[in-house]
Amino acid sequence: MSLKGLIFIGFFSLCVLGAVSMPHLGIYGYLADYCINPADQWWGRPFAHMGLRFSFTLALATMVGIALQWKKLQFGQSILYGQELLLLLFLVWVWLLVFIAPGTVGRYGSIDHPSVKLTKIVIFTLMMTHVITDLKKLSGLFWVLSTVGLILGVKAWQTPYGRFIGGRLEGIGGADFAEANFFAAFMAALLPIIGIQFLRSKQWLPKFYALLCGAFTANAVILCRSRGAFLGVAMGAVAALWFAPRRLRKQIVILLLIGCAGGLYLTDDFFIERILTITTEQQEMDESASSRIELWKAGAKMFVRSPLGIGPGNWYQTIGRYIPEYEGKDSHNTYVKCAAELGFPGMVLFVVLIWLAYRALQRVQAGVSQPAVAEDYSSFAFALLVALVVILTCGLTITMLYTEVVWLLLMLPLCLLRAYDNASVGQPVLMTSGEVTGVPKDAGK
Question: pTM to 2 decimals?
Fold first, then answer.
């Protein structure tokens, strides 16, 4: 057995067995499995061929751990916050449409239907928001995601150019990232998470490790040559400058300048040519970019004709009625697809979930806990906010409505809010005005 195989099975066993007494280890393992997809790696295939379902085993072990450690878990102000209730309502609406909308034809024979996939996503995210409820566990999750970025970034760097498709890196990472745009969006969203771990680290070794993770992650984004990811990174940089904590502003500006310089060094003519096609001038658009405008217009017509939605997963069988030559093509826009498939109620719920994620981060920053840990709360809130800006901007040109990473990033702010509430219970809170008072009454609602 290879060394990589031994390391993998050792980490997997640690997470499965450890999840029984420390459920957060199961969360870490599940996230790593989701991002890397070890069953598709040569060092993981022997175990997959044994019939071992990695994600299912990790999720099951985490469930057992939650049940056994229930009394030790901390749920903050409530066992279900408003954001979690709304997520469940969103899932209910999706399943209601499954029964009242036309049936989905053909596409989901070998893979999960969006309603089934979203159900699995909701189950895991609810476990995550009830387990990752203190700063130490959240920091551990950030380091897991940073390590995932390093592993996938190294694999992208090692992939020979001859295996690129159309000059773009494809087929790296988990099932959700098989296509270059999706992988680039995920890796781009990791950059603020890695960056904040670099800034938070006080010793040179973790700083160097975070720097290494960031370099390989950024390089992978460039190799994908994704216009959507470029827009996401650009908006993320603007958000980083706008929302940067005052104490970190200079360091963040320096990191952004270094990142821009490194990105320019790594880019090539093909990357620049693709980015230059981001324009509204028809004569300057390539065929791929211009076709998206037509698809979005068709999606708007779907929404007008079916305001309650055409049903989850039904875009592909419907688009041909509006644009026959684009039959079976994707929407290339998360929000257009949400409006078309889930209708006005689904779109409203999705937008409110985004707003609640922002409000959770805002509440943590507005009512800072004890001064000794205030910097950590502020740093985590900043990183999650920028990561959300990146992934949601990518959603303008990439369809990620049923992609797990979007929902993970939407619900991670709730993990931070619960950590804040848990730390604040029975203790004075230092408000931004300098006034010492009790825990805000609306915290966590």
Answer: 0.88
